[in-house]
Design goal:
Distance between the termini: 76 Å
Order of helices and strands: HEHEEEEH
Number of strands: 5
Shape: flat
Strand order of the largest sheet: 2-1-3-4-5
Structural class: alpha/beta
Radius of gyration: 24 Å
Largest sheet: 5 strands, mixed
């Protein structure tokens, strides 16, 4: 009898959990929620595009690689051949002190990566006005692990660069061309 009660209680509990999960799924789909998906699915509305970053720039290389993988967009070397021009107005990295320990030594940094850009056509008409993307990451710091912390900082900047490229591609995909 005791086993039957436990079994019945567990079955009811499991059934209630199943109903709660199904209800949550129905609510999420009803409100229009949908996963963002990859930026490879996003289509940039331009046939040709010029990227105003140097060839030796890691940001430029990653951005060009991602745009080339976009269906139907070709990265060109000359502004005159481009339907759209991505002008980079400012790109900066910054490391700020967030906190100090009791001896006055740095305990935590904030890493900032900022890109300011705009998208125009070769006649100067703006498709996207000057826009800024700012990314921030916090990083703990220990002097005794200096080399490891320098490597961690570089990894964080690389991660921010990848995130920045994805945000930039989403903004490019959202541009509407009139005519």
């Amino acid at each position: 009898m005791l086993l039957q009660r436990r079994f019945l209680r567990n079955a009811l509990h499991t059934g209630a959990q199943l109903i709660a999960v199904m209800l949550a799924a129905c609510i999420l789909t009803a409100c229009g929620f949908q996963l963002r998906g990859s930026t490879a699915d996003a289509t940039i509305p331009f046939k040709t595009m010029y990227i105003g970053l140097p060839d030796n720039s890691s940001l430029g290389a990653e951005l060009k690689r991602n745009i080339r993988s976009s269906i139907g967009t070709q990265v060109v070397r000359d502004k005159k051949d481009a339907q759209a021009i991505l002008e980079v107005l400012d790109e900066s990295r910054e490391r700020l002190v967030l906190s100090l320990n009791s001896q006055g030594r740095v305990r935590e940094y904030q890493l900032n990566y900022k890109l300011r850009f705009r998208v125009i056509d070769n006649a100067g008409k703006e498709f996207l006005p000057p826009t800024t993307i700012t990314l921030k990451r916090d990083m703990s710091f220990t002097e005794s692990q200096l080399l490891a912390k320098e490597s961690e900082e570089e990894l964080l900047y690389r991660d921010m660069q990848t995130d920045l490229v994805q945000q930039l591609l989403r903004r490019l995909a959202a541009i509407k061309i009139n005519g």
